[in-house]
Amino acid sequence: MACASCSTGKDGQPKGCKNNGTCGTDSCNKLTVFDWLANMSLPNGETPFDFVEVRFKNGRKQYYKNTNNLTLSIGDIVATQAQSGHDIGMVTLTGELVRVQMKRKKINPKKEEVLKIYRKASQKDIDIWSAARDKEEPMKVKARQYAIDLKLQMKISDIEFQGDSSKATFYYTAEDRVDFRELIKVFAREFRTRIEMKQVGFRQEASRLGGIGSCGRELCCSTWLVDFRSVSTSAARYQQLSLNPQKLAGQCGKLKCCLNYELDSYLDALKEFPKTDTKLYTEKGTAVCQKTDIFKGHLWYAYEGEWMNWHVITAAQAREIIALNKKKEKVASIEEYASDLIIDTKTEFENVVGQDSLTRFDRPKGNKKRRNNKNRKRNNKPRNKKSSKPINAKK
Asked: What distance in Å separates the CA atoms of residue 3 and residue 90, rounded to the nearest whole number?
């Protein structure tokens, strides 16, 4: 998605809105929600929903009540209620879709402790907010160095200032419990502001920082994914993926969330297959499953003691043999079923371009060599000193 102010510059290069994540139309930000109810009018007598969605740094969103009935639209900078002081954020959603989002996230709008919107941000509020945002990166470098000096097993991933610059929240990740009381004293003495430490998981850290995944696209957790479900190695086993941690792990160091996307389809397809630990009993011997191809519906079996010779059969044929084994019956051999399944490994390439040959316009190389040889023979003939004609030339 791109915002309306993003256009194309010279030579087809993207111009961009250059708002660095604070685009007015909120279409090039993280976790953007498209307001598909914006063009629909309310029935007569219905009042608009008085809650709005406000976005802060790195996709953090909260819902606030518009008690003063301010005329708000997407992209407005507002001053919102905080535990102490006020915070500055941008309106990302208004209207009835906010009610749907709050219901989906199980937020009760009738609670007494709901947060409120104070006013639209003035130019002074925006200047203080921008100055606080500019201090975050150099503070993060110093904070990491202080944590290293105190030998704390933690990583400070991000810093977020409150809109009025009265408090700084330090987001960190750690494997175990960390005693950072001494670190807070150092931060308060150095940065001269109230400090709040907030631990986040590795997946939440990746969603806040963003990045490009191995698929070449932006991370799902930083663009549209809001709930982090547990991912286990069984998801990779069901999809017959190699258990390589370097390929299965994402930028957060955990298993990729996309392993769960197609897991249900694989589980439904595996219902048609017999269990891999079920053996096939034949008169020739006992066969054990070696490999499964979910897409083609094939299974490879090998006799005990003949592990190098694999025989491929379909899932229906395997179920048929298992049904006979349950009746205490044995088939002659698996080869009878495998002979019916002929796999054509020959690959035929078709002319999809509609041309006979892609090199039909190339000049043949043989003619060029013949011409070069003739020119060499002519140049090598002895010539008369007085005339430029060859000696054997007729007068």
From this structure: 15
Closest CA to 162 of 92, 75, 62: 62
Asked if residue 365 lies in contact with residue 372, where contact means CB atoms within 8 angstroms, the answer is: no
| Torsion sign across C-alpha atoms 216, 221, 238, 247 | positive
Give the phi and the psi of residue 329 in degrees, each rounded to 5. -115, 150
Structural domains of the chain, with CATH:
31-120 (no CATH), 130-200 (3.30.300), 207-269 (no CATH), 280-340 (no CATH)
Q: What digits encode the pLDDT tens for the residues 262-305?
A: 999 999 999 989 988 899 999 988 999 998 999 888 999 999 88
Q: For the chain, give me the number of helices (H) and strands (E)?
A: 12, 12
Report the predicted TM-score, pTM, of the whole model to 2 decimal places.
Answer: 0.68
Strands 167-173 and 194-199: parallel
Q: What count of other Cβ atoms lies within 10 Å of the Cβ of residue 247?
A: 11
225: which residues sit within 8 A by CB, 6+ positions away? 207, 257
Q: Where are the alpha helices (DSSP H) in the chain?
A: 96-104, 123-134, 136-149, 181-191, 202-209, 220-223, 233-238, 245-248, 263-270, 315-326, 335-340, 365-380
Contacts of 323 (CB under 8 A, 6+ apart): none
Q: How far apart are CA 267 and CA 248, in angstroms?
A: 19
Q: Which pLDDT tens digit goes with each residue over 70-119?
A: 888 888 999 999 988 899 999 989 988 999 888 888 888 887 678 899 99
Q: How far apart are CA 304 and CA 320, in angstroms?
A: 20
